[in-house]
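ok new one. same drill as before - structure tokens go in, u give me an amino acid for every spot. 97 of them this time. try not to just spam alanines like last time pls lmao
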């Protein structure tokens, strides 16, 4: 089955799955993805997933990517707020001196 232009490459999905396994376990990561531990293990070792598992891996990767983007936006907003607070605090200290 040919890859859609917007579909993530398998090596990106595989690396994301490896990172998730490193953070949790093969069993937990497989459960999050919706495939068996054996299927995830085989995928991590280079095998090509069959259609339904490939669809589940792509869906999981999309969710993970969206979560990372959301967290990056939150971090950027927190950094902006922190800089604002530091600026106000510095301004307040300068007025007291």
């Amino acid at each position: 089955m040919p890859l859609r232009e917007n579909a993530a490459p398998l090596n990106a999905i595989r690396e994301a799955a490896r990172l998730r396994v490193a953070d949790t376990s093969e069993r937990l990561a497989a459960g999050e993805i919706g495939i068996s531990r054996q299927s995830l293990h085989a995928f991590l070792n280079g095998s090509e997933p069959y259609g339904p598992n490939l669809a589940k891996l792509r869906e999981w990767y999309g969710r993970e990517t969206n979560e990372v983007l959301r967290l990056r936006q939150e971090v950027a907003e927190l950094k902006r707020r922190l800089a604002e607070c530091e600026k106000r605090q510095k301004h307040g200290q300068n007025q007291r001196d």
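The mean pLDDT is 89. and btw The radius of gyration is 21 Å.
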